[in-house]
Amino acid sequence: MARFSKLQVLNTISQNGIVPVFYHQDAATCKKILKAVYDGGVRIFEFTNRGDGAHKVFEELLAYAQASLPEMILGIGSVVDAGTTSLYIQLGANFVVSPIVNAEMAATCNRRKIPWMPGCGSLTEISYSETLGADIVKIFPAQQVGGPEFIKAVKAPCPWSSIMPTGGVQPTAENLKQWLDAGAHCVGLGSQLFVKNNDGSFDYDAIQKAAQLSVETFKNHKK
Ligand SMILES: O=C(O)C(=O)C[C@H](O)[C@H](O)COP(=O)(O)O
């Protein structure tokens, strides 16, 4: 069962603002990534359901976070159906993110009071998701859908929408400011956060620093 209530998850997202989006098949690598962003101040993390054994890695990450990173709220992403949603809720996912809008997933999450963040690319999808109970909608793929200008345009007629752009967001003060100025509620940060060394291994120090800069940029923007 989820360790954090829906309210705790939503509050942490609005205070922390940075949602790393990551998948790796190796649990040890995932733990090091999780620790690096946690040390950088991140308290929300989306692990993506990208491989056949992803649920086993996720279970290990949940246990690790509970034991060693107690404030870290772990959710699952890249989920596109209700069956997979149930599996991850049963394992203890604290929120569920999707690249699409799926009403059965919404019902499954709502039944257990788990925040559900569907992937939207139009105002109609955003609006439909909100009628299905989404508190935060993901815009995916955010840069391709229209970038910060798209969010600004959506927020004009729908200022109540809480939007999480994901896809193409960069962990720099300049780029984060563009999304936040446009009205983003929080941002999903993928590949650009997970800096690599020349040999292809992850640069955990650089990842921690990029996470810290992103969290601080978000906090300063809210002031
Ligand atoms: O699987 C999902 O549900 C996703 O969110 C897709 C990607 O992981 C993000 O779009 C990250 O995109 P980048 O930040 O551009 O690397």
What order do the helices and strands come in, and which of them pair?
Elements lengths: L5 H11 L1 E5 L4 H13 L4 E5 L5 H15 L4 E5 L4 H10 L4 E2 L5 H9 L4 E2 L1 E2 L2 H9 L5 E3 L2 H4 L1 H9 L7 E3 L7 H9 L5 E3 L14 H19 L1
Parallel strand pairs: 1-2, 1-9, 2-3, 4-5, 6-7, 7-8
The structure holds 2-keto 3 deoxy 6 phospho gluconate.
The site of 2-keto 3 deoxy 6 phospho gluconate (ELE) has 17 residues, from strand 9.
Q: What is the H/E string?
A: HEHEHEHEHEEHEHHEHEH
Going across the major beta sheet, what is the strand order?
A: 3-2-1-9
Gross morphology: globular
> Total helix count?
10
Query: Quick one: CATH class?
Result: Alpha Beta
**Low-confidence spans:** none
Going by CATH, the architecture would be: Alpha-Beta Barrel
> What's the number of structural domains?
1
Q: Class by helix and strand content? A: alpha/beta
Mean pLDDT: 98
CATH topology: the name is TIM Barrel
Describe the structure.
The protein has helices spanning 6-16, 27-39, 54-68, 82-91, 103-111, 123-131, 142-145, 147-155, 173-181, 204-222, and strands spanning 18-22, 44-48, 73-77, 96-97, 116-117, 119-120, 137-139, 163-165, 187-189. It has a single domain (6-216), classed as Aldolase class I (TIM Barrel), CATH 3.20.20. Helix 2 packs across helix 10 (204-222), helix 8 packs parallel to helix 9 and helix 9 (173-181) runs parallel beside helix 10 (204-222). It contains ten helices and nine strands. The mean pLDDT is 98. It is globular. Helices cover 48% and strands 13% of the residues. The strands form three sheets. A four-stranded parallel beta sheet has the order 3-2-1-9. It is of the alpha/beta class and 223 residues long. The structure holds 2-keto 3 deoxy 6 phospho gluconate. 2-keto 3 deoxy 6 phospho gluconate is lined by residues 21, 48, 77-78, 97, 99, 140-141, 166-169, 188-192. One of its GO terms (molecular function) is 2-dehydro-3-deoxy-phosphogluconate aldolase activity. InterPro entries: Aldlse_KDPG_KHG (IPR000887), Aldolase_TIM (IPR013785). Homotrimer.
